[in-house]
Design a protein that fits this description.
It contains 13 helices and 18 strands. By secondary structure, it is an alpha+beta fold. The chain folds into 2 domains: 85 residues, Helix Hairpins, CATH 1.10.287.40; 302 residues, Bira Bifunctional Protein, Domain 2 (BirA Bifunctional Protein, domain 2). The chain starts with a helix and ends with a strand.
């Protein structure tokens, strides 16, 4: 949520930044509601003062008259406040000044490429064919019992998945991150506070209206919300968490895209980083989270590129976002495996998360970044495939699997 004072002082800038993100906002309408709210708020305050005065003077008749008027106006004030808040929640977080204005992902910027894709003597197989041959991925049986976009991981596939998660946790705990296993259900109003339900975002969620709860699409949603309505001590910052959870997404609007394999699934596991930092320190922290994501990809020795999102491909709560895309030989292109975003103080305002410093309260800046999801497993299968059908295990992961390669079952 934006500071209403910022909106009053910069209406055209807010309207433009929203439009750059593909969201149409009627700022004049919001400011009209705000004006009515402030005017009525002043009137209600005067009525309260008059009520107190008549009470001291023991003027019963006038007191009753003021009480009736006050109840009516307070009800109207409450309705106006709710209307104003609902309108403010529709405004996306403005992009940072360094974010390129663009309409969609086709205008994103590649800012770095690391590593050289391996040349294969024959056409490389895709991860699903490799996984089925090695008996570590089973999509058919998962589809039979759960529907499309679900999968079983089996045998070394399970161990490889756990190895990735273990590597991420060990790396991040050494960096001072606090390990967390968060809930996978959160309240609808909390999810709305995070800014993920606006602008059609709820279409991608599994929502349980009967219980008023939502399944998380990423573990950051639970971890960020953990400090809702809290006042942190400035000495605690930066406060960094690493969390693991199963995540759930409907993948609304993606029908026909990546239907083969496990790249775009309804259920997957993920290790996520979350940082709470002081005002103005999020740019530095953003680069730090990105450097950790790069470090993890380099440990796997997989070619990748870093992509900076343009405004049209930036999520509702994000002020800036980087994706890391790993090389996928079967597709002959890079595909997203991790991302890192700063939401500046946007989520902190909506969830009321502050810190106290020099006798003043400030909203924190909040960031998130993927350590590992299941997608790096896909990149490993494709980049480390061998002509005999086996897959070499990246050296950094062998300590967890206690073997050097995965071979087809005889």
């Amino acid at each position: 949520m934006l500071d209403i004072r910022f909106l009053r002082e910069n209406p055209k800038a807010v309207e433009k930044s929203s439009k750059d993100k593909g969201v149409e906002i009627n700022v004049n309408h919001i400011l009209e509601i705000d004006s009515k709210y402030r005017e009525l708020s002043e009137y209600v305050q005067k009525l309260r003062e008059e009520r107190n005065k008549t009470a001291r003077e023991k003027n019963i008749e006038k007191g009753k008259e003021i009480k009736n008027t006050l109840e009516t106006k307070e009800h109207a004030l409450s309705a106006l406040k709710e209307e104003l808040n609902n309108e403010l929640l529709k405004i996306p977080n403005p992009p940072k000044p360094d974010v390129k204005i663009g309409k969609d992902e086709s205008e994103n910027e590649v800012i770095k490429t690391v590593g050289t894709p391996k040349k294969f003597s024959s056409t490389p197989k895709d991860h699903l064919e490799i996984g089925e041959t090695l008996d570590i991925v089973d999509v058919q049986r998962a589809t039979k019992i759960s529907g499309s976009r679900f999968y079983f991981l089996k045998n070394e596939g399970v161990m490889l998945e756990f190895a990735l998660k273990q590597l991420a946790f060990e790396t991040l705990i050494k960096e001072g991150f606090i390990p967390v296993l968060p809930p996978v259900f959160i309240k609808q109003e909390v999810m709305r506070g995070l800014g993920y339900m606006e602008n059609g975002g709820d279409d991608d969620m599994y929502i349980f209206d009967k219980d008023g709860i939502v399944l998380v699409g990423t573990s950051e949603q639970s971890i960020v919300s953990m400090h809702k309505d809290e006042l942190l001590n400035a000495k605690e910052l930066p406060k960094r968490y690493v969390g693991f959870s199963t995540c759930f997404r409907r993948e609304a609007g993606s029908y026909g895209k990546d239907t083969k394999g496990i790249l775009r699934a309804h259920q997957f596991d993920k290790v996520e980083m979350v940082s709470f930092v002081k005002q103005g320190e999020d740019d530095k922290e953003h680069e730090y989270l990105l450097s950790i994501e790069e470090k993890l990809l380099k440990l796997l020795d997989i070619p990748y590129q870093v992509v900076k999102m343009c405004t049209g491909d930036l999520g509702f709560p994000a002020a800036r976002k980087y994706d890391i895309e790993a090389w996928m030989p079967s597709q002959n292109k890079y595909r997203e495996v991790t991302s890192a975003s700063t939401t500046s103080d946007f989520q902190a305002r909506r969830l009321n998360i502050k810190y106290r410093e020099v006798n003043e309260n400030h909203f924190v800046n909040i960031l998130n970044g993927t350590a590992f999801s299941t997608r790096p497993l896909i990149a490993i299968l494709e980049n480390y495939q061998q002509e005999d059908g086996s897959v070499i295990i990246p050296e950094i992961l062998r300590q967890y699997l206690r073997k050097e390669k995965i071979s087809p079952k005889k």
